Amino acid sequence: MSRYYIGLSTSGHDPSFTIVDSKGKVLVAEATERYLQDKRAWGSLPDHMNHLKSFLEKIIDTDENAEFQIAKSWKKIKADLPVEISDDLIEKSIGEWIRNLQAIVQKNAGVHCQMIAKNRILPDFLNFDHHHCHATAAVYSAPFNNAVCLVLDGEGEVGSASVFMWDGITLKRIWRSWGPGSLGTFYSTLTELCGFSTIAGEEWKVMGLAAYGKVDDKIVELLRKLITIEDGKPMLAVENNLKEVMAELKKYKHKESEDILNSANLAASGQFVYSELANQILKSISNLSENLILTGGCALNSSFNGTILKNHPFKSVHIPSAPADDGNSLGAAILAWKHNQTNLSLPFNQVSPFLGSEVNLKDLNNLTNHSGLEITQIDINDTNFIAKKLSQGIIIGVMRGKAEFGPRALGNRSILADPRPKNMKERINKIVKGRENYRPFAPIIPFELMNNWFEQVQPCTYMSFTLKWKNNAKELVPAVVHEDNTGRVQTLDKHNFSWLYNLCMEFNNITGIPILLNTSFNVMGKPIVHTVNDAISVLHTTGLNAILIENIYIEKR
Description:
Layout: E1 2-8, E2 16-20, E3 26-31, H1 32-36, H2 49-62, E4 66-72, H3 92-108, H4 111-117, E5 126-127, H5 130-140, E6 147-152, E7 161-166, E8 171-176, H6 183-193, H7 203-210, H8 217-223, E9 227-230, E10 233-236, H9 239-249, H10 264-285, E11 291-295, H11 302-305, H12 308-311, E12 316-318, H13 328-340, H14 361-370, E13 375-377, H15 384-391, E14 396-399, E15 413-417, H16 424-433, E16 442-446, E17 465-468, H17 473-476, E18 486-492, H18 498-511, E19 516-520, H19 532-541, E20 546-549, E21 552-555
Parallel strand pairs: 1-4, 4-5, 6-11, 11-12, 14-20, 16-18
Antiparallel strand pairs: 1-2, 2-3, 6-7, 7-8, 9-10, 13-21, 14-15, 15-19, 16-19, 17-18, 20-21
Helix pairs in contact: 2-4, 5-13, 6-10, 7-10, 8-10, 15-18
């Protein structure tokens, strides 16, 4: 029999699945929200019947001996543990809701796999430690064979933080935190205080808003009282003090009637305290290796991530494309593979984030033959055509190749634009994305040209680091320079991002600027597009000018 491994992310939010073959190679990894077009897909099973069916049937059609081992990303159902949920920071009802969803999903995940593949599914499912899944998924794409790996998360089986050592063969936990102290919960609390929704995953907005504010000493002193770090481990403050502190902090809470910019100082102060706490944790482990792997939901804090190399003795930092819970299906699948391959090392240095669905060719043919739209077929390898369009101010949604695994669009499901016009940011926010104008857009640039534009040079493959621009950037590419003169940059190497790399180079030939604006191909509140129909819908319902789907270019007139 040929054994395949199906990893399922079972947190109750951000479900996903990953399929790994008998050699430990990832065949596909994708978040359920993409298929459902439901942001974060709360409460959905990760093996959604219609989403997973075509992938399993394709394997069975080509491998008559296929059998499948299912693995889940939690060892236990949290609701079964005798832990009372606190309402000191986040509302108790939210905590109970999340715990109940985790119980439902952890218990029932895999039933659709059994329905699809029947007796090819091995009867005993495997359950792996949540943070072990995070760490294993991060190692898969790590470019080095030794590192200390920090998981900073909202929660885990017993605590929110874990530290592992990766030696090129095995991944061994050296400590974990216990109890409710959590940097993830800290940031969720900040998100709610700023007037955003942690359920909707609006922590991004806090980071964007923070650039418009100033650190307020009074707010900082209050926030410092919520979480402390002891021996590198986050700890919740004493409960009675928490109630008093939260009562004071709620005096700064955003009111719906106010301009959101009134919360900018709160956001800036919260980001400042988060950085203090995270730096204390990193300081406690910085002597363990010159390489750092950072993962867990907190690893999405790109504003902090961009400061790590300046403030700690690490020589390199790796953050995977999907550090949050959607990435855990990959970790569970790899751990299941390793469970049967005890004599082999964990796979690593698998750089490509393009692990998701491809464009459905039947849908593309229908678009070409029956839509009535004016279609131009281009040579996809000739990037001059698209570079010219971008230089003329055309905003283009791109859908080509396999989709990215993780929350960020890295070129295959992206909206691309010219970063030079001063009004491009406002234009995209207003007529395409429908989102707030304080939120920045990301720049993409070939790695070898980064030194001309950014004060700090480091690989930023998955858009995980926010770095300072050099002084003249705002005059040249104002649409991708944030209020605090930073950019959440994606660097490109020719091997793994060849089309996008060549497009930037061609744009440079035309304009003298090797940088493009990159944002996810979606509208506010919706996941990144999944189907041809999703892409067409965005084209026709927003101010997007054009789309490129594989080699099919469609421009509105």
